[in-house]
């Protein structure tokens, strides 16, 4: 019951496996990811009081929610057969992580309104959806959400070679803090990495903030998917 209440508070109703989680072995491909917003300019002030620091690493996007009412948080991890199961492990910082990725300024930021992040998945995945998350306007210290991403494109990537396959173009609406986007193109193949390429934000000329990126799909082909013949 408590977990349902927490989800209602967060507005988080996405109940799909997230293959972008760092805890299951996914990682950031820094070679194909924009630089983090400059540390010297990454602080926001109001009347000489520092409000927050934007200089967070991009792997912040891969953090998952931890239940503050339960120090033994659920984590998804691969077992010996490569299947994914849920187990319980103690959290050493559960009291300070409610929630770890939706508090103002606790985001990954890049300069301007154009940038990208590439996530290497722990194993190849047949992709179906992408979820982006931002803070609600009600807790924004600046009173607006102009640093939220707006228009973006998703690519599936192979490694190697670094082939990029267009999977869809979307627009994030900051009024909804968590939005899941069904991929417009779902080719009959699994991908080793996902690139999120942002081409605009909602008006901030200095930076764009991302709070969390989730990658959904399956490690086995969907039944309705017609696989490409093996060569």
How would you describe this structure to a colleague?
The protein is mainly beta. It folds into two domains: 14-64 and 101-218, Galactose-binding domain-like (Jelly Rolls, Sandwich); 70-100, no CATH class. Helix content is 4%, strand content 38%. The protein contains one helix and 13 strands; from the N terminus they run αβββββββββββββ. The protein has one helix at residues 2-10, and strands at residues 27-28, 43-46, 49-53, 72-78, 84-90, 108-111, 115-133, 151-157, 164-171, 178-182, 191-198, 207-210, 212-218. The strands form four sheets. Strands 1, 7, 8, 9, 10, 11 and 13 form a seven-stranded antiparallel sheet that branches. Strands 2-3 form a two-stranded antiparallel ribbon. A hairpin with a 5-residue loop joins strand 4 and strand 5. The protein is globular.
Secondary structure: elements and pairs:
Elements (H helix, E strand, L loop, with lengths): L1 H9 L16 E2 L14 E4 L2 E5 L18 E7 L5 E7 L17 E4 L3 E19 L17 E7 L6 E8 L6 E5 L8 E8 L8 E4 L1 E7 L13
Antiparallel strand pairs: 1-7, 2-3, 4-5, 6-12, 7-10, 7-11, 7-13, 8-9, 8-11
CATH fourth-tier homologous superfamily of the largest domain: Galactose-binding domain-like
Separation, N- and C-terminal Cα atoms: 51 Å
Looking at the overall shape, the CATH architecture of the largest domain is: Sandwich
Number of strands: 13
Provide the CATH topology of the largest domain.
Answer: Jelly Rolls
SS-derived structural category: mainly beta
* Uncertain residue segments: 66-100
- The mean pLDDT is 75
The CATH class of the largest domain turns out to be Mainly Beta
Characterize the largest beta sheet: strand count, sense, and whether it forms a barrel.
Answer: 7 strands, antiparallel
Oligomer: single chain
Question: What count of domains describes the coordinates?
Answer: 2
The number of distinct helices, counting runs of at least 4 residues, comes to 1
Helix fraction, binned, reads under 10%
The general outline is: globular
Pfam family, one: Sad1_UNC
InterPro entries: SUN1-5, SUN_dom
Protein name: SUN domain-containing protein
Keywords: Membrane, Transmembrane, Transmembrane helix
């Amino acid at each position: 019951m408590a977990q349902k209440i927490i989800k209602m508070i967060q507005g988080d109703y996405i109940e799909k496996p997230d293959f972008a989680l760092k805890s299951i072995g996914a990682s950031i491909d820094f070679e194909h990811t924009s630089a983090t917003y400059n540390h010297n300019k990454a602080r926001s002030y109001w009347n000489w009081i520092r409000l927050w620091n934007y200089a967070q690493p991009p792997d912040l996007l891969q953090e998952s929610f931890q239940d503050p009412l339960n120090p033994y948080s659920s984590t998804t991890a691969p077992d010996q057969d490569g299947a994914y199961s849920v187990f319980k492990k103690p959290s050493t910082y559960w009291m300070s992580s409610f929630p770890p990725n939706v508090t103002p300024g606790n985001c990954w930021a890049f300069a301007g309104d154009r940038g990208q992040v590439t996530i290497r998945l722990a194993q190849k995945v047949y992709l179906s959806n992408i979820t982006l998350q931002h803070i609600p306007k009600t807790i924004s210290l600046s009173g607006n959400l102009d640093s939220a991403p707006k228009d973006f494109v998703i690519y599936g990537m192979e490694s190697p070679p670094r082939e990029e396959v267009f999977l869809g173009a979307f627009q994030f609406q900051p009024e909804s803090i968590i939005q899941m986007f069904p991929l417009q193109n779902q080719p009959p193949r699994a991908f080793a990495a996902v690139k999120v390429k942002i081409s605009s934000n909602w008006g901030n000329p200095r930076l764009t903030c991302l709070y969390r990126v989730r990658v959904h799909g399956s490690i086995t082909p969907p039944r309705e998917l017609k696989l490409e013949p093996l060569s």
